[in-house]
Design a protein that fits this description.
CATH topology: ABC transporter involved in vitamin B12 uptake, BtuC
Radius of gyration: 21 Å
Mean pLDDT: 92
Number of helices: 13
Subcellular location: Cell membrane
InterPro entries: ABC_transp_permease
Oligomer: single chain
Strand content: under 5%
Organism: Blautia celeris
Order of helices and strands: HHHHHHHHHHHHH
Largest sheet: none
Number of strands: 0
Membrane topology: Multi-pass membrane protein
Shape: globular
Structural class: mainly alpha
CATH class: Mainly Alpha
CATH architecture: Orthogonal Bundle
Protein name: ABC transporter permease
Low-confidence stretches: none
Helix content: over 70%
Length: about 325
């Protein structure tokens, strides 16, 4: 009797392979500048808001959905946090931003689950609506961060909050029934409905969490900028999604959705972005190179996973 070989999950290791390849290329091309202490700290500093927003978005992605409102939520929640801190007190900054983010996420979840609107269309419409509200609000007012608020623009504070978020929401996603439900919906939503699970409630909670964490990310964006701006958070949702796809998180959701992949994907994206900046090319050229590399990474990952799946199927057939 032949001893079966242990199958390697290519989808689990590809994010690490891509990260090491891009990091190695960045080290070689920049002469090691990318590993300078100040540069590494800058990469981490830039990555924190994207990581926070991504941890929230992953609940929606696990169900096979998407949430492209996080960029607009960052702008609106960050502005609401700044307004609350300046007019009520510093203590109100986090509650205001979290409340705004969670409220938008709750609305997304209700529309998507109760009215069966596709998540992409719902969150796209919400993205436009929120951005319009932010533009209207900031036409007549300017919110500049005071000294107490600017103290939050500290890497130690950001890392501490990011670590707490990762521990709490990582545990919820990986080890609680709710997290299992989100992944199971991504695998087979109809089967989940037959088990008696309230799929609508799971979706509402998932999108609420996504909005809540985007609200927290909004605080760090506004203090980093030094004040509220109507362009805050613009494009963040696309970058977060690129980080996920770069990290081999499946677009259809399901069991392949993992937070550790998101962490690797975020660091890979910002290592690439930072490396190109250090090389000193123009923004247009860097944008082109960034796009080409990301497309190649996605193609290589998809091909590698498909070939691995075919090998596993052939091996299983041969053993039977």
């Amino acid at each position: 009797m032949k001893k079966s070989k242990k199958n390697i999950d290519i989808g689990a290791v590809m994010p690490l392979i891509i990260f090491f390849v891009i990091t190695l290329a960045a080290v070689i091309l920049t002469g090691g500048q990318v590993f300078a202490v100040n540069n590494i700290l800058n990469i981490i500093n830039q990555a924190v808001p994207y990581l926070l927003a991504g941890v929230g978005m992953i609940f929606a992605v696990a169900m096979g959905g998407t949430d492209i409102t996080c960029g607009s939520i960052i702008g609106l929640a960050g502005t609401a946090g700044a307004y609350a801190a300046l007019n009520i007190g510093f203590w109100a900054m986090f509650p205001a931003a979290i409340l705004v983010g969670a409220a938008v996420g709750l609305l997304n979840g209700i529309v998507i689950s109760k009215f069966k609107v596709p998540s992409f269309m719902c969150t796209l419409a919400m993205l436009l609506a929120i951005r319009a509200v932010l533009n209207w609000w900031l036409q007549s007012q300017v919110f500049i961060c005071n000294e107490q608020m600017l103290k939050l623009d500290n890497l130690g504070i950001k890392l501490l909050i990011a670590l707490v978020v990762l521990i709490i929401f990582g545990y919820i996603f990986r080890f609680t029934p709710f997290g299992e439900y989100t992944r199971a919906i991504g695998e087979n939503e109809l089967a989940m409905e037959f088990t008696g699970t309230s799929v609508s409630l799971v979706k509402i909670v998932a999108y609420t969490l996504s909005g809540l964490l985007a609200g927290i990310a909004g605080i760090f964006v506004v203090v980093r900028l030094g004040g509220a701006s109507n362009t805050m958070g613009a494009g963040v949702e696309m970058k977060v999604m690129l980080c996920m796809f770069l990290a081999s998180i499946p677009v259809q959701g399901g069991s392949g959705t993992r937070i550790y992949k998101l962490i690797i994907g975020v660091m890979t994206y910002f290592m690439l972005d930072n490396g190109l900046t250090l090389l000193g090319g123009t923004s247009n050229v860097n944008q082109l190179i960034r796009g080409v590399i990301l497309i190649l990474a996605l193609i290589i990952t998809r091909v590698a996973i498909e070939k691995n799946e075919m090998r596993n199927i052939k091996r299983a057939a041969a053993e039977n």
